[in-house]
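Final report, section 2: Outcomes. Of the targets proposed, GFA family protein is the one most frequently requested by collaborating groups, and we therefore present its record in full.
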Amino acid sequence: MRGRLTGGCHCGGVRFAYAGELGGAQGAVTLCWCADCRRAQGFAAAVAPAEATGFEVTQGADLICEYESSPGKRRAFCRACGSPLYSRRDDRPEGLRLRLGALDQTPESLAIEAQIHTAARPAWAAEACEAPAYPGTEPGR
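The predicted structure is given below as tokens.
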């Protein structure tokens, strides 16, 4: 999926635009059930790999905080409202993993392609979608 998208945080302090491919050659659009994502998001994290060069903060760059949740992995969020925006890895500066909930409109053509870390999915969480499920990361990542 390629196009120009906009998004931001819950309080409206952070706004961004994205022009580039989501998923595809960047990797699978995933729903992650790991404990870190559940703690950071409040539920599983729906993310789409994106090109860092296509991502532009259009408002509120000073409100974006990054937290190193594991060595070399940083989760970005709004310091005012706590909304998750994206994550990035130090060893992959060319890519981001945009949080789908931060997009103003999710393209209809975008679909979850893999559920990952399903071994960590809690008993209270029902099967979220019909995408293939993997106990760890998806094959090829």
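The chain has a mean pLDDT of 91.
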